[in-house]
Amino acid sequence: MKIVARLTTAAVAASFALAMPASAQITFTGYTNGCFYTGVVACTPEITAGPATDESGPLTYRNSTFSVMTAAGAAAIGNAPGTPNVNNLGSFSLPADFTSTDFTGQRFALNVFFTAPASVVPTNTTFLATITGVATTGNAGGVTINFDNNPKMFTFAGGTFTLEVADVNLTNGIVATSVPVTGNLIATSTVVPEPGTYLLMASGLAGLGIMARRRRNNA
Q1: Domain containing residue 7
Q2: Could you tell me if 10 and 93 lie in one domain?
Q3: 193: which DSSP letter?
Q4: Collapsing DSSP states into helix, strand and coil, what is residue 72?
Q5: CA distance linking residue 161 with residue 159, whole number of Å
Q6: Are strands 124-135 and 106-116 parallel, antiparallel or unpaired?
Q7: So what's the pLDDT on residue 13?
Q8: What is the number of structural domains in the chain?
Q9: Helix 195-218 vs helix 2-19: angle between axes, to the nearest 10 degrees?
């Protein structure tokens, strides 16, 4: 009788373990575009997955595509080394030789467009940044693209997620420099159990009922 009880307990525990949804890995894919502007009215970045650049004097932004998978609900976009303008939010660059430029008063608009997972709302959103610093010829000066670092929230078919864009700092030198735009993505999955999961839970509850009945009969 003790062996039967132990087997029943094990079956109940297994059914509940299988019924609990695991922390699913989610793949996020998309692309970016951006544009420089002055004043308080933002420009409208072109929404296209094709190659695109935008320039403000010597400072250039180049768009990118990305595909990242969450681990424990989080993913870093652009923090891992790899092919330029792949798996980041684009990049800013300065050439080796250019005319000195003061960026005071200039702004930048970054548009991030999601193509997966399914049903992302909104499908795209814009992060605004102010630009400060003076880019000078030679090995001196630098530029900071200061983004609004408040995370923006999205919904998708399996839950919600937020995206935060990090600031970018370029120190120009005697050679061309390029710095990727990075971001942090945090997802919260709301997985609905499948019908088979409910059957496992029901079998577990039935097993508990059998155990309770046997204990009463043996008392």
Answers
A1: 2-21+194-218
A2: no
A3: P
A4: coil
A5: 7
A6: antiparallel
A7: 45
A8: 2
A9: 160
- Cis bond before residue 81 (omega within 30° of 0): no
Quote the CA–CA distance of 11 and 92 in Å, as a whole number: 57
Q: What is the CA radius of gyration of the chain?
A: 26
DSSP one-letter code for 166:
-
Residues forming beta bridges with residue 183, ordered by sequence position: 77, 165
Give the containing element (helix H, strand E) for 30: strand 27-38
| Residue 117, C-beta contacts closer than 8 angstroms, at least 6 positions apart | 26, 27, 28, 156, 157, 158
Q: What percent of the chain has pLDDT over 70?
A: 71
Tokens of residue 49, six digits? 């997955």
Which residue in this structure is represented by tokens 């999601």? Answer: 114
User: What is the number of other CB atoms lying within 10 angstroms of the CB of residue 195?
Assistant: 6
List the one residue out of 104, 206, 119 whose CA is nearest residue 154.
119
Same domain for 165 and 76?
yes
> Quick one: 177 and 198 in the same domain?
no
Of 129 and 138, the one with more pLDDT? 129
Is 72 in the same domain as 157? yes
Same domain, 46 and 62: yes
17, 121: one domain? no
Which DSSP symbol is given to 187?
E
Element (H, E) at 177: strand 177-180
Query: Exposed, middle or buried: residue 215 (CB in 10 Å: 0-12, 13-18, 19+)?
Result: exposed
Nearest to 43 by CA among 126, 150, 133: 126
Least confident of 79-88, 90-99, 143-152, 172-181: 79-88
